[in-house]
Amino acid sequence: MRALVWFSQDLRVFDNPTLNKAHSAADSVLHVAFLGDLLRPSSMPGLKGVSSNRKQFLYDAIASLKAQLELNGHSLLVINGRACDELGGLIANYSIDAVFAAQQAAFDETQLWAFFDKAYKQVNFHLVSSNTLFEEQTLPFSVAEMPKQFTPFRKKLELSKILPREQKRAIPWSDAINFQDPRIATQINSLATPNRLSGGELAAVAHLNAYFNSKAPQTYKKTRNALQGFDSSTKFSPWLAQGSLSAISIVDALREYERKHGANESTYWIFFELLWREFFFWSARQTGEKLFWKKGRRATAPLTSFYPERFQAWVNGSTPWPLVNACMNELAETGFLSNRGRQVVASCLVNELQLDWRYGAAYFEQQLIDYDAASNWGNWQYLAGIGADPRGQRQFNIQKQTDMYDPSGEYIRLWHGADSLQNVDSRDAADWPILPTKLDAVTRFGPLE
Ligand SMILES: Cc1cc2nc3c(=O)[nH]c(=O)nc-3n(C[C@H](O)[C@H](O)[C@H](O)COP(=O)(O)OP(=O)(O)OC[C@H]3O[C@@H](n4cnc5c(N)ncnc54)[C@H](O)[C@@H]3O)c2cc1C
């Protein structure tokens, strides 16, 4: 049997059930990645596509996957186009009998898969659970009937005591990556540098090891909301988003850490946050195309619109709020932003600037090195009040957030948040009596240079 493995958000060889299944079923396997899908630009008008940070992180991941496959005697076919245009040709040219791919969350990918399954009757299409902690068939509810909010979702999962996939059938690291191989050991060591966010599986392993060899997990719950600091949160998301690291590998390392150093509220909270990721994954499968609708799954859409001038000010970090500007500057420069920073700028876009939340989500899609459709659009919906939040729209008081998370203005100075302060816009400036003036910000955060 000849199989094709279609890599998507599972760019790794270790703990990759898609790869394992294809190799155990087939005599020969063609490994393919479609760059056109992995770097698909956002469909929102006016946005440029994919940032250079996100591109670079993905290229690192592809290069690393290629190298790992080659070390195992295989190759990777990297195609510039999209699967919808190219897969049919590959099936015909290589006489493919079966296609294996990781189950994904978002609507387009699900639709495309259903299309191929229907169109190529002679080919067996296998979707494999590779990105999540739990497999669909082991969830204590059907996806259609899963709780629409996080807390009941989490409680049902925790009460059911179902185990994450890997804990049931452990695969030793060395099955896929030979950690004794000096070429690999040297690469991992050279990547294990704090603050370095390189893409790819080896960098992911290096970071996983470094994080759980540090004391950071002991205090995660206290530090996770910080605006800066490499160890304040785990920073696993960029590798998780591309699948260079599996969520199961993180939970395994976490359990190992707890065995050695003891479990506490902070170590539990790392798992808790991974359940948020899990929630958004299954929720996206449940919501389908509504994940991208302005009204989400509600009956009516928020009363927001699109004002290009305001949106540009938000993107450029030139709003009247130094904290928002600092966050937007960090995002543009690095492709990463803390969870707190994301919440503050998203709330600003929706509540202060009264912009259609989808433009904010699409800009994040363009910029984030950890862009993940389910987590990104799900979190934006949550903040815009048309998603999974029972409390409706959330508004963060920007001044309060600044006082709590950047009391000395260090973060704002680092990311030049007070350098380009501007009023919201000329049209209805009179409607914004509470805006801080440029002078207030200078007094508070020091000279602009
Ligand atoms: C508006 C907005 C957009 C976001 N877009 C994305 C996105 O595109 N991709 C993405 O991975 N996360 C997204 N998040 C969630 C969260 O901000 C990031 O996962 C987190 O900041 C990544 O840093 P970390 O790995 O250090 O997280 P940690 O705090 O260390 O958390 C550990 C892991 O738990 C998961 N996690 C934590 N919080 C969330 C959450 N709220 N939703 C889903 N998973 C979570 C992530 O996988 C994360 O790596 C978004 C949040 C907001 C408010």
Any overview of this molecule?
The chain is 49% helix and 6% strand. The protein is mainly alpha-helical. The protein folds into three domains: 2-130, HUPs (Rossmann fold, 3-Layer(aba) Sandwich); 150-289, Serine Threonine Protein Phosphatase 5, Tetratricopeptide repeat (Alpha Horseshoe), CATH 1.25.40.80; 308-445, DNA Cyclobutane Dipyrimidine Photolyase, subunit A, domain 3 (Orthogonal Bundle), CATH 1.10.579.10. A five-stranded parallel β-sheet has the order 3-2-1-4-5, with helices on both faces. The protein starts with a strand and ends with a helix. Mean pLDDT is 88; it is low at 167-174. The protein binds flavin-adenine dinucleotide (FAD).
Layout of secondary structure:
Blueprint: E1 2-7, H1 17-25, E2 28-34, H2 35-38, H3 52-71, E3 77-79, H4 83-93, E4 98-102, H5 107-119, E5 124-128, H6 150-160, H7 165-168, H8 182-191, H9 201-212, H10 220-223, H11 237-242, H12 247-261, H13 265-287, H14 308-316, H15 322-334, H16 339-352, H17 357-367, H18 373-384, H19 398-405, H20 410-414, H21 438-445
Parallel strand pairs: 1-2, 1-4, 2-3, 4-5
Helix pairs in contact: 8-9, 12-13, 13-18, 15-16, 17-18
The structure holds flavin-adenine dinucleotide (FAD).
Residues 224, 233-237, 240-241, 273-274, 276-277, 280, 338-339, 342-343, 346, 364, 368, 370-372, 375-376, 379-380, 383 line the site of flavin-adenine dinucleotide.
